[in-house]
Amino acid sequence: MKEDRRISRTKRMLHEALLGLILEKGFESVTVQDIIDRANIGRSTFYAHFYDKHALLQYGFSYLQEHLSEQQQPYLRRSQHPNEKPRFSFSLPMFQHAHEHHKLYQALVGKQSGVVVQLQMKELFASLVRAEMLTFCQQDISSPFPMEVVEQFVVHSFTGLLTWWLDQSMPYSAEEMDHMFQAVTLPGMMAVLYDCTDNASTS
What we know:
- This protein is mainly alpha-helical.
- Helix content is 76%, strand content 0%.
- The chain has helices at 5-25, 32-39, 43-49, 53-79, 91-100, 102-109, 114-136, 147-167, 174-202.
């Protein structure tokens, strides 16, 4: 069942208030009172929807993950075409979304976000990268490289580059950032693919 518009609007207002406060004082310093004061919403209304500020934060991540996964799907389908050159399909949609919503991403990956927010953001990235891994190398193929290692390498590389880009006020376009990320990261990824393919052919 689709969520009532008024409920969706209330949740969105609370989440926007949280993001603004994260930018100002950091997630750890934000209180529920701060959030409801900023959103001009009653305490009982807040607790009708969220257990605490962490639940509100998780709501925002779930919404963001759903949106980014939808954006990723067309690129994933194209990457499976035999004539398509290997590439990370999550990168361009992510840079484009960050460019359009840079204040949101500054709150999520910037210096003020805090450890809790950064860990959840990296887990969101990891879920997108995991989808890529399934197109790069089938699960039943043995590889000398644990996929968790490859996943974390890509996640931390992308997170670091995205954070730098935002901190520098986005001096390059989303398309340029995607191109540079692909050029720097894909060679290592292709080495892993080669090992997967080699193992498959010799097994």
